[in-house]
Amino acid sequence: MKKLFYICMSLLALTACTNDDQYELSDFVGTETINVTYNGNYASVGILPDYVTATVVGADVVINSYTSKNLVIYVSGTTTDGSLLFYGKNDWGLVLQNANICNLDGPAINNQCHKALFITCPEGTVNTLSDGTSYAEASFDQKGAIFSEGELYLQGKGTLNVTGNTKNALASDDYITIYNGITLNLTANGSNGMKANDGVFINGGMLNITVNSDGGRGIRSESVMDIIGGIITINTSGDCKIETIDGVRDTTSCAGIKCDSLFTMSGGTLNITSTGDGGKGIYCLQDIRLTGGTMNITTKGSNDDGKPKAVKSATGIILSGGSFTAQCKKSWACDNGTDSENPADRVTIIGTPTTKEIEKRYVSVIFPSVVY
Amino acid sequence: MERNLIITLMLLIAGTHQVKAQSDDFGMWYELGVEKKLTNKLNVGVEAEFRTRNNSRTADRLAFGVNVDYKLLKFLKASGGYTFLYDNFQEELDMKSDGLTPNKWTPSYWAPRHRFNVSLTGSVNWKRLGISLRERWQYTYRPEATGKKYDIDNDEWDPKKGKGKNVLRSRLQLTYDIPHWKFDPFANVEMFTAKGGTQKMRYQIGIDYKLKKKHNFSLTYRYQDVRSNDDDNEANRHLIGIGYTYKFK
């Protein structure tokens, strides 16, 4: 009996060699994925990782993420009244795989996470997102067909078509960065094509923006804006938006780009055409600095309610490289805040351009190409 | 009689093992000691201990200690000791303030601790019944351990900072000397009090078996009831203890 006792005790001791941890490092680092598929009035969500929950009502999907991992949501399918609303703590990615999402009463994509949203359109995909003509009341911000509380990055080699029928097509309460390769077609029927609170940075890509709304802007940055590449085409056709606030008549004119801080361009091509009344090509509250790239700005609109300008800056239009062409049918092509009637006083040229033609309604300054 | 008792205790061990797999944890304590009586009043001893947890599937602690006790009065004994603990600290996962998002993760790891204790034990006997009360102050220091805590957001391994802890352990024990029987049963209850109040209670029953006055075997059952997080992340646990002590004359 004693032998049995000792054997049993020894066996019990020998069993004590396993690990009792519930987690591994891989539970906290790496990438988790979720698949969301839209099908008409319904949506389905695939297997959820730990610390992620999903609620689906019809084709409205709400994802709550508490995972510390990078989360990537793959979205595909078509819905005529659906959405994706995301809450989380960390940066996350959204891969659009021929997704067609229209939300009749709010944003198609709404990132309520205050961290970055990376939207990727893989090569060969065409994705179409739009909001409705009115938004339902909500306790959270809804500022466009795609809205992000955090930074918004757009990348990939596919196509993304976004239509804003009520508010902006694309909006971020942080900044927006566009990478080379993507084709981005934005249509603004309600407000701006693209709006960011903290800056817009265009590194490349094909960007086509059509603004039909009165007082709308192709790109609206409440901070800086920088273009270093890409082909950007903005057409605005809206007239001035006239509102009476507290008995005061307020006129907001259309613009291809409205920037509240420094605007810089060092590469790429920017073509802006504005045809509405009082429409502006670029309207910047600080300097507009062109050091490279090609900028063609044309405003054809009337000056009934607004004052059309091709390029307007409150502090200066400084040209030191690239190609600059601005023309305005009804008013000054360039306005740098001066009252001078001499067109040459309205731009600052640094260096020796090969072409320099400065008139009231037409300015062309072309610097020699720089070969690196 | 002895055979029946051993069988009963073996069944108790096996039964506890299975029952506790469903709710509280279960562990084993293996204790080995040597004692030497230097004078009529002074004893010294060394001891080693091995503990398990996780239904006895995971090693929990290795410990080596020395102790000395001195009989101040017929009914009063003072003692002190040092124990080197080599603990397998349990895994911890800290969440952010929302209570849902993982913040820092500390996987289980082995690290040393140093424990010092002094005690006063008062005891009285009434016929064959013995009653004793032991008050023990215990200080345990855990040195800093580098690279043990993973900061999930910053993707880096932080140190587990060093920490000292004072605990007052109060134990009330009953013993009974059964005539003409080699087994002496005992029962006790022990309260662990630290900053913040009672941390845990231990309830214990067991028997001592003396062989030729030199060999002392013990078999115990303890239940540990954790009242508040004592930073060791201990769970409520059923414990079976098996001990052997050799007494030099």
| Chain oligomer state | heterodimer
Helix content of chain A: under 10%
Spatial ordering of strands, largest sheet of chain B: 1-2-3-4-7-8-11-12-13-14-15
Counted by DSSP, the helix tally of chain B is 1
- Helix and strand sequence of chain B: HEEEEEEEEEEEEEEE
| Cα-based radius of gyration of chain B, to the nearest Å | 20 Å
As a whole number of angstroms, the C-alpha radius of gyration of chain A is 26 Å
Q: Strand tally of chain B, please? A: 15
* Content-based structural category of chain B: mainly beta
Largest sheet of chain B: 11 strands, mixed, barrel
Low-confidence stretches of chain B: 5-22
Distance between the termini of chain B: 29 Å
Distance, first to last CA of chain A:
91 Å
The rough form of chain B would be described as elongated
The global form of chain A is elongated
What is the strand and helix layout of this fold?
The complex is a heterodimer of chains A (372) and B (249).
Chain A: H1 2-14, E1 31-39, E2 42-45, E3 52-57, E4 60-65, E5 70-79, E6 83-87, E7 92-103, E8 109-111, E9 117-121, E10 126-131, E11 144-148, E12 152-156, E13 159-164, E14 168-172, E15 176-178, E16 183-188, E17 194-196, E18 200-202, E19 206-211, E20 217-221, E21 225-227, E22 231-236, E23 241-245, E24 248-252, E25 255-259, E26 263-265, E27 269-274, E28 280-284, E29 288-290, E30 294-299, E31 309-313, E32 317-319, E33 323-328, E34 334-335, E35 348-349, E36 355-358, E37 362-366
Parallel strand pairs in A: 1-5, 4-6, 5-7, 6-8, 7-9, 7-10, 8-11, 9-12, 10-13, 11-14, 12-15, 13-16, 14-17, 15-18, 16-19, 17-20, 18-21, 19-22, 20-25, 21-26, 22-27, 25-28, 26-29, 27-30, 28-31, 29-32, 30-33, 31-34, 32-35
Antiparallel strand pairs in A: 1-2, 3-4, 23-24, 33-37, 36-37
Chain B: H1 2-20, E1 25-37, E2 42-53, E3 58-73, E4 76-89, E5 92-95, E6 102-106, E7 109-126, E8 129-142, E9 145-151, E10 156-160, E11 163-176, E12 183-194, E13 197-211, E14 215-226, E15 237-248
Parallel strand pairs in B: 1-15
Antiparallel strand pairs in B: 1-2, 2-3, 3-4, 4-7, 5-6, 6-9, 7-8, 8-11, 9-10, 11-12, 12-13, 13-14, 14-15
